[in-house]
């Protein structure tokens, strides 16, 4: 559990999750207590509300210097290469996801960091895993480099818990839907892009097939899961680095139908690409009963509530001429 005196480091803070987690943590623990870091320069919102360090997590020495400089006690390790980008450059995915996390664990062990959060992903599952209500403890044989690195990361985190008593925690996130930073090259990115393009163009071309169902979660629930898990009593946890969590499951055609309730003229086309193969190897739905039992996980948003909220916020931003979107 984070105490008020603890200083927190967030790696990969400029990304989709970091750009919302950092403000949430600064709100709870105080702006000066949360050091944001990334290999890239983030939006001003992150640098103007508290400390920021340019940091490459594959550089062990630089990581150690930042931990020592701020007397870091808690790390939220978000720096990673995601599934679709990982297939374009598997060597880089290995380097950042494996060596980066190993550096975080080793520097933490040596420099007295107490607690680490490192997200895992539904990408740890593969074609041999049961696809409906995927169990907590099941077959982990992923077919992507991203999935391979996430399985290794879960095992590495649990090893440091057992061997060194380091408090490492993590959730297997499904696709995260949000309206601040755009997603960073994953297979579920369509579920964010569709909202932007619905609001701006009233049409969208989807890179997955209409019927492909995947587990998803709205950002407020993602932040809630991270904060609740990190605050949970360590003694109650039977799992550590690999909690299944979910909030909803839907296909692109189900999401499009939900958007049409608000924008009746909205049109969708389907042009599946290489990401379809990745999606086909992932679960349709997730059993997150271990997270519910061990630390009280409970999502707030379903498909209807999330869609309404996303459209309300993006429409308003578009009306004000402030909706920035690079069509990829
Ligand atoms: P993102 O791609 O949006 O952000 C990752 C950040 O890491 C980027 O800002 C990038 O600049 C930074 N980064 C890359 N290489 C780096 C390096 N060498 N050193 C320091 N920073 C580096 O990703 P995200 O969606 O914010 O994901 C955060 C974590 O959550 C990752 O571990 C990811 O695997 C996991 N996750 C995300 C989702 C999702 O849908 N967004 C789903 C499952 C798991």
Explained architecture:
The protein is α/β, with parallel strands linked by helices and about 325 residues long. The protein folds into two domains: about 5-175 and about 215-245, NAD(P)-binding Rossmann-like Domain (Rossmann fold, 3-Layer(aba) Sandwich); about 175-215 and about 250-285 and about 300-320, UDP-galactose 4-epimerase, domain 1 (Alpha-Beta Complex). The chain is about 40% helix and about 15% strand. The strands form four sheets. The protein has a six-stranded parallel sheet with strand order 3-2-1-4-5-7, with helices on both faces. Helix 3 packs parallel to helix 5 (about 90-110), helix 5 (about 90-110) packs parallel to helix 6 and helix 7 (about 190-200) crosses helix 12 (about 305-320). Bound molecules: nicotinamide-adenine-dinucleotide (NAD). Nicotinamide-adenine-dinucleotide binds next to helix 5 and strand 9.
State the gist of this model.
This protein is α/β, with parallel strands linked by helices. The chain is built from 12 helices and 14 strands.
**Strand elements, count:** 14
CATH architecture of the largest domain: 3-Layer(aba) Sandwich
Radius of gyration: 19 Å
What percent of the residues sit in helical stretches (DSSP H or I)? 40-55%
The CATH class name of the largest domain reads Alpha Beta
Terminal-residue CA separation: 40 Å
Q: Describe the global form.
A: globular
CATH superfamily of the largest domain: NAD(P)-binding Rossmann-like Domain
Strand content: 15-25%
Summing up helix and strand content along with how strands pair, one would put the structural category as alpha/beta
Strand order of the largest sheet: 3-2-1-4-5-7
| H and E order | EHEHEHEHHEEHEEEHEEHEEHEHHH
Number of DSSP helical runs: 12
If you consult CATH, what is the topology of the largest domain? Rossmann fold
The whole-number mean of residue pLDDT values reads 97
Number of domains: 2
């Amino acid at each position: 559990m984070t105490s008020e005196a603890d200083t927190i480091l967030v790696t990969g803070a400029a990304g989709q999750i970091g750009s919302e987690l950092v403000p949430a943590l600064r709100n709870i623990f105080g702006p000066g207590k949360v050091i944001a870091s990334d290999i890239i320069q983030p939006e001003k919102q992150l640098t103007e509300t508290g400390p920021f360090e340019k940091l490459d997590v594959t550089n062990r020495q630089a990581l150690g210097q930042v931990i020592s400089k701020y007397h870091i006690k808690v790390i939220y390790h978000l720096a990673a290469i995601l599934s679709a980008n990982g297939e374009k450059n598997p060597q880089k995915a290995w380097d950042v996801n494996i060596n980066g996390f190993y550096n975080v664990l080793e520097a933490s062990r040596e420099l007295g960091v107490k607690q680490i959060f490192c997200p895992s992903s539904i990408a740890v599952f593969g074609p041999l895993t049961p696809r409906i209500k995927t169990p907590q403890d099941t077959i982990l044989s992923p077919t992507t480099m991203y999935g391979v690195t996430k399985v290794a990361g879960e095992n590495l985190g649990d090893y440091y818990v057992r061997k060194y008593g380091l408090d490492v925690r993590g959730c297997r996130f499904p696709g995260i839907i949000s309206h601040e930073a755009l997603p960073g090259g994953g297979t579920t990115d369509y579920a964010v892009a569709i909202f932007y393009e619905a609001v701006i163009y009233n049409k969208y071309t989807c890179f997955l097939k209409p019927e492909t169902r995947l587990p998803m979660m709205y950002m407020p629930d993602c932040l809630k899961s991270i904060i609740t898990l990190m605050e949970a009593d360590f003694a109650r946890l039977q799992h550590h680095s690999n909690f299944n969590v979910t909030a909803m499951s839907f296909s692109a055609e189900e999401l499009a139908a939900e958007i049409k309730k608000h924008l009746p003229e909205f049109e969708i086309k389907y042009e599946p690409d290489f990401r379809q193969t990745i999606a086909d190897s992932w679960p349709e739905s997730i059993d997150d009963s271990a997270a519910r039992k061990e630390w009280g996980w409970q999502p707030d948003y379903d498909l209807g509530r999330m869609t309404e909220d996303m459209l309300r916020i993006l429409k308003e931003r578009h009306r004000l001429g402030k909706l920035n979107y690079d069509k990829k």
